[in-house]
Amino acid sequence: MSHLFRFAxxxxxxxxxxxxxxxxxxxxxxxxxxxxxxxxxxxxxxxNNPKATGDFAxxxxxxxxxxxxxxxxxxxxxxxxxxxxxxxxxxxKFVDSIDALLKESDAIMIFSLDGRKHRExxxxxxxxxxxxxxxxxxxASWDDAVAILRMAEExxxxxxxxxxxxxxPGFVGMRNHPEVGKVLGCDVYGGCPTVSHHAELYWHALHGxxxxxxxxxTGCVSVTCTSTPFAEVITGTWSDGRVGTxxxxxxxxxxxxxxxxGDKGVSTAGIYGHGASVxxxxxx
Length: 284
Prior knowledge:
This protein is α/β, with parallel strands linked by helices. It has helices at 3-15, 38-47, 74-88, 98-104, 118-127, 142-155, 169-172, 205-216, and strands at 28-33, 59-65, 93-94, 107-110, 131-134, 159-160, 183-191, 220-227, 231-238, 243-249, 257-262, 266-268. The protein starts with a helix and ends in a 16-residue tail after the last strand.
């Protein structure tokens, strides 16, 4: 089962939390806000597949608001035109504003690549009382991230954000891997490109950091960091004495994987969490 499929199942569970039966209920109308990210296309295709079963049968992407590309993010400018063409094949309605999207939808997925937009976009969704998912990055700054979380908490709006790495089988599976046993420590590595408009670890580095917590679990109580033009190396100490590290790759090929240490042995998680040894890298 692919990481994107597992990720989508988790989203479906959130969206259908009040439905007694996805198959019997009217489909939850999903609106997508911002489509300069390939994931907007992926999820529209999965949710609108006429052969969808289970929770997926209870979801349908009905409308999208493409928004505008961010001039200072090359992948946004380059991606928006081609993703617009592809998502149109999923039989969705294009609208020209967030307000129009909200009127068409029961739940919203924000896929804008530019985290600077997310606080304002999320505020509009939460104010309207719609369930919300925010794709990476949650925001471009600490203040904006906290503000979004507080808005959702204060209004009791169902809300979720995460990297898809949380659902990569090869990462999740390391928590009870037969060759590893109980996880005693973990060394994760992944891309850590830096941009001027987002906090350093909010951009691509969050994928590797989420991998670390997926394998180690919660309970990190202290953090130290070494930063150079070549790498960002973060060491976390957990409350039970375990140690986990994240090596953010700034120069060189940005592969994504981890080495996991346990009470039975040591094992490699696989590149991007697929399988257990040699697979492929995937750069968003």
